[in-house]
């Protein structure tokens, strides 16, 4: 039985706490009132784990895309690296600028910068911290921020603390909207138009919820055309492109040979590389700015040795070419999945009825330059279909999660599937068949005209679990 569905059932079974907590201090009652709004909408999140991972449950959700975590290779290499450096401390025991620095970290940064063809690199404890440092330290008063509307939450958090007052989004991956946005900044900001202040443009390599790739070359050439003096520069978040795109997984910028054009690259390393931490690639000017103005670098502890050792061995895997085969398998896996889904007899009807849609597949395969392991399956807008599909998959042994607003726009609810080099052909065929079986059930409900009355089998099971939790009062 799926632990995701159980924990969902338990979370949704929670009764409103505002009345039962009436003797608690107001501080806690106010917090319970906030949580009650989630409880009322069955949106209360909870945590769970998968003891049956790899046996009863097949992973189509983790970020271990190259299979380095699953295979245990990362763990083995990591243990060897620790053994080779017997004097290591667990904690860096200080921020980077005081006690937290080490030769090991400096050598690592040097080698990583070389691998990515960058002038220099700066380690961070994680990607959230790296984005916060970049967006608080780099845009200066009078500068503007322009960002893709689907940019990651941690970039938004960084931008909130930025000195830049002008912040404008452009439509996701839309070149016309990008051009219009840059032109409007140029036209409304005399100091930027005169080349005295700058525009920092934030994009991602592969967008985490959509699995599509940033049209970086085109964006760069539009930015150069509108700002020929070079006062428009890019920050790219390569969290999801790291390890899966480019030579030896070096990322989108390296794949396109744009190393000289992109001012700042942020790579998070717990995903495809199965390590942890993050690294910012930039030049010495930017690095110096981050060290002097990146408040969370100045005031937080530096990455400890275990994290650095994991990053070292992760990069060794990429550098040695050992992960190339896994990287090459992505295209094959996604094509196999697409073929199984779209050749199934239910596909056309389910697609027409908006029960299953994969917008990524609307583009011509011949024109598709990069294949990414993230495939969002969009379900019928403004319904609970995405949750129903996730229940169905989870109860049938596949780990995949529903995604909804505010993580994705309203009406674009989905279940996100992530492929891993470790997923076998049989597993991929099985998840495609399971998705189609669910779509058949949903079409049947449509044909009966019982939508809203009859819920699909897996959802019925989930609701029954929730009722049981309510009756037991264990929630
Ligand atoms: C695009 C993107 N950027 C940044 C982050 C934050 O990285 P970290 O998990 O290392 O804090 C994530 C995390 O999932 C991400 O998907």
Protein model, in words:
With 475 residues, the protein is α/β, with parallel strands linked by helices. It folds into 2 domains: 7-14 and 43-60 and 325-473, Aspartate Aminotransferase, domain 1, CATH 3.90.1150; 73-320, Type I PLP-dependent aspartate aminotransferase-like (Major domain) (Aspartate Aminotransferase, domain 2, 3-Layer(aba) Sandwich), CATH 3.40.640.10. The protein is 45% helix and 11% strand. The protein contains 19 helices and 12 strands. The protein has helices spanning 3-13, 17-20, 26-40, 73-84, 103-116, 127-137, 153-160, 175-188, 190-193, 216-226, 252-256, 284-293, 295-298, 305-320, 324-342, 347-352, 385-395, 425-448, 457-472; strands at residues 58-59, 120-124, 144-148, 166-170, 199-204, 232-237, 264-268, 278-282, 374-378, 398-399, 401-403, 414-418. The chain has a 7-stranded mixed sheet with strand order 2-8-7-6-5-3-4. It has a 3-stranded antiparallel sheet with strand order 9-12-11, covered by helices on one side. The chain has a two-stranded parallel ribbon with strand order 1-10. Helix 7 links the parallel strand 3 (144-148) and strand 4. Helix 5 runs parallel beside helix 14 and helix 8 packs parallel to helix 10. The longest helix is centred in the C-terminal third of the chain and has 24 residues, at 425-448. The model has no long low-confidence stretch (mean pLDDT 94). It binds pyridoxal-5'-phosphate. Pyridoxal-5'-phosphate (PLP) binds next to helix 6.
């Amino acid at each position: 039985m799926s632990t995701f569905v159980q924990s969902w059932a338990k979370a949704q079974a929670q009764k409103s706490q505002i009345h039962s907590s009436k003797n608690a201090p107001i501080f806690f009652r106010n917090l319970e009132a906030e949580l009650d709004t989630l409880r009322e909408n069955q949106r209360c999140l909870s945590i769970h784990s998968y003891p049956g991972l790899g046996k009863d449950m097949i992973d189509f959700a983790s970020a271990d895309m190259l299979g380095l975590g699953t295979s245990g290779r990362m763990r083995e290499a990591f243990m060897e690296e620790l053994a080779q450096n017997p004097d290591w401390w667990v904690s860096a025991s200080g921020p980077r600028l005081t006690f937290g620095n080490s030769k090991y970290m400096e050598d690592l940064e040097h080698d990583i910068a070389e691998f990515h063809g960058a002038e220099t690199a700066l380690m961070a404890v994680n990607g959230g911290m790296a984005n916060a440092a970049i967006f608080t330290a780099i845009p200066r008063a009078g500068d503007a921020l322009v960002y893709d509307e689907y940019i990651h939450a941690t970039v938004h958090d960084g931008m909130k603390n930025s000195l830049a007052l002008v912040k404008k989004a452009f439509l996701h991956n839309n070149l016309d909207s990008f051009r219009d946005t840059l032109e409007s900044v140029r036209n409304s900001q005399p100091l930027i138009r005169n080349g005295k202040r700058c525009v920092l443009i934030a994009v991602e390599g592969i967008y985490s919820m959509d699995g599509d790739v940033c049209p970086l070359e085109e964006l760069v050439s539009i930015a150069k055309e509108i700002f020929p003096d070079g006062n428009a520069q890019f920050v790219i978040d390569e969290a999801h492109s790291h390890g899966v795109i480019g030579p030896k997984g070096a990322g989108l910028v390296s794949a396109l040979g744009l190393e000289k054009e992109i001012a700042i690259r942020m790579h998070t390393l717990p995903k495809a590389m199965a390590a942890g931490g993050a690294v910012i690639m930039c030049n010495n000017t930017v690095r110096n700015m981050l060290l002097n103005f990146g408040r969370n670098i100045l005031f937080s502890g530096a990455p400890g040795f275990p994290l650095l050792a994991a990053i070292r061995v992760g990069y060794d895997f990429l550098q040695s070419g050992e992960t190339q085969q896994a990287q090459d398998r992505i295209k094959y896996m996604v094509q196999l999945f697409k073929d199984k889904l779209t050749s199934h007899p239910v596909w056309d009807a389910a697609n027409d009825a908006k029960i299953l849609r994969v917008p990524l597949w609307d583009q011509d395969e011949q024109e598709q330059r990069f294949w990414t392991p993230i495939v969002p399956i969009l379900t019928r807008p403004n319904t609970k279909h995405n949750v129903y599909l996730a229940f169905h998959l989870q109860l049938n042994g596949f780990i995949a999660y529903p995604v909804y607003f505010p993580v994705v726009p309203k009406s674009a609810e989905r279940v996100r599937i992530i492929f891993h080099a470790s997923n076998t052909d049989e597993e991929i065929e099985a998840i495609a068949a399971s998705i189609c079986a669910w779509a058949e059930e949903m079409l049947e409900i449509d044909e009966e005209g019982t939508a809203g009355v009859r819920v699909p089998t897996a959802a019925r099971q989930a609701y029954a679990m929730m009722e049981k939790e309510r009756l037991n009062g264990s929630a």
